[in-house]
UniProtKB/TrEMBL annotation:
HAMAP family referenced in this protein's UniProt entry, alphabetically: GDP_Man_dehydratase
Protein name according to UniProt: GDP-mannose 4,6-dehydratase
Cofactor section: NADP(+)
Keywords, sorted A to Z: Lyase, NADP
Gene Ontology molecular function: any one: GDP-mannose 4,6-dehydratase activity
Domain of life: Bacteria
Its job: Catalyzes the conversion of GDP-D-mannose to GDP-4-dehydro-6-deoxy-D-mannose.
Keyword NADP: yes
Coiled-coil regions listed in the entry: none
InterPro entries the record matches: GDP_Man_deHydtase, NAD(P)-bd_dom, NAD(P)-bd_dom_sf
Family as reported in the entry's similarity comment: Belongs to the NAD(P)-dependent epimerase/dehydratase family. GDP-mannose 4,6-dehydratase subfamily.
Gene it is expressed from: gmd
EC number annotated for this UniProt entry: 4.2.1.47
Length: 354
């Protein structure tokens, strides 16, 4: 008999990659999905199996991290060997607008899952993965950031994830639950949500190339991130839960890139030659040689508190898990731009995010 996994956030970017990976390893995968007025299962469409079929290996349950009774009942029914808690209000900028909801789902939601494992007496059976984040490092204390670097969260999202990180450690120490944190640096893909900066840029580069959009407005172009590919990172999540002892691991590429550089690469890959003409109220941003300005800075996208630079040191994961990211940031940009161009070509009605 293969193992059974429960993935919260299965409809998100990482949930889709992880579900595919676990199904490929012979798992039966249960996913938590939220009720929504329109379909929210687009990312897992290719994995979907008709529940009328005999023995489907991907099974979806309605649920929400803010509903304890619902979580308890699903976990009791599924009796998972492994829980991957990927569900979250995951947008840093949005967390300044919905801080209380973000705390409820991203912090207390984790407590609800751990309590369900404890109360149901599954502490010896069920292993728990918490989707922790490089946002915990926030205001720079050390470069590169590793497992021992002090945390200094800079957003309601990061503060909620700080609680989640520590409650995971506490339930491991207090109750002996096999509970681990993956402290993952930014990871992207063609399935990345459209309002995160990488996807916003690659979609816009594709749309501008195809004449469907005139310009793109962005916030802080100086921010630097350690960008990897989601496909590589879900393999690290799985490897973390296969260790005999639970522990916390950084997953990162070790390379940091500015948003500005990402923009230059994306537009170059779309075949648009851009020149940088400065940043600020009276300056123009990124323009083409013929003077058409394609990318402008709009202060509305600035955050009340920003994380300036992230770059991770994944030595521990390399040594203990044998984990190594395969895709470079440069290849990631190429893949995302190519996917967005072909998606727009296939669907003339698609609009790009501005
Ligand atoms: P996404 O935003 O793409 O996916 C988030 C998922 O969580 C979606 O399935 C969403 O459902 C679901 N969700 C949101 N709120 C709730 C809730 N209250 N109850 C149940 N489900 C909910 O995020 P990613 O896939 O990029 O990230 C996965 C996890 O990893 C998140 O926890 C994120 O914070 C964390 N993380 C991500 C990193 C990254 O670079 N991608 C880096 C480090 C950590 P719906 O589809 O209905 O919106
Ligand atoms: P981040 O990702 O905040 O790192 O969180 P995001 O892509 O939103 O921002 C990265 C950097 O780009 C700057 N930026 C912009 N960001 C957005 N979204 N839109 C813009 O127009 C824009 N212009 C500049 C931001 O200010 C920031 O510095 C992601 C999420 O996946 C989290 O859930 C996860 O925990 C972390 O990565 C690691």
């Amino acid at each position: 008999m293969g193992k059974t996994a429960l993935i919260t956030g299965v409809t998100g970017q990482d949930g889709a990659y992880l579900a595919k990976y676990l199904l490929g390893r012979g798992y039966q995968v249960h996913g938590l999905k939220r009720r929504s007025s329109s379909f929210n299962t687009g990312r897992i469409e290719e994995l979907y199996q008709d529940p009328h079929e005999l023995d489907p290996q991907l099974i979806l349950h309605y649920g929400d991290l803010t509903d304890s009774a619902n979580l308890m009942s699903i976990i009791q029914q599924v009796q998972p060997d492994e829980i991957y808690n990927l569900a979250a209000q995951s947008h840093v900028a949005v967390s300044f607008e919905v801080p209380e909801y973000t705390a409820n789902s991203d912090a207390t939601g984790v407590l609800r899952l751990l309590e369900a494992i404890r109360i149901l007496g599954l502490g010896r059976k069920t292993r728990f993965y918490q989707a922790s984040t490089s946002e915990l490092y926030g205001k720079v204390q050390e470069i590169p950031q590793r497992e021992t670097t002090p945390f200094y969260p800079r957003s309601p999202y990061a503060v909620a994830k700080l609680y989640a990180y520590w409650i995971t450690v506490n339930y491991r120490e207090a109750y002996g639950i096999h509970a681990s944190n993956g402290i993952l640096f930014n990871h992207e893909s063609p399935m990345r949500g459209e309002t995160f900066v990488t996807r916003k840029v690659t979609r816009a580069a594709a749309a501008i190339k195809l004449g469907r959009q005139d310009r793109l407005y962005l916030g802080n172009l100086a921010a630097r991130r350690d960008w990897g590919h989601a496909r590589d990172y879900v393999q690290g999540m799985w490897a973390i839960l296969q260790q005999e002892e639970p522990d916390d691991y950084v997953l990162a590429t070790g390379e940091t890139t500015s948003v500005r550089q990402f923009v230059e690469w994306a537009f170059a890959d779309a075949g648009i030659d851009l020149r940088w003409e400065g940043e600020g109220i009276d300056e123009k941003g990124f323009c083409t040689a013929s003077g058409r300005c394609r990318v402008e800075v709009d202060p509305r996208y600035f955050r009340p508190t920003e994380v300036d630079i992230l770059v991770g040191d994944a030595t521990k994961a390399r040594r203990q898990l044998g984990w190594e990211p395969e895709t470079s940031v440069r290849d990631l940009v190429r893949e995302m731009v190519a996917a967005d161009i072909s998606a727009l070509q296939r669907n003339p009605a698609l609009k790009a995010a501005v």
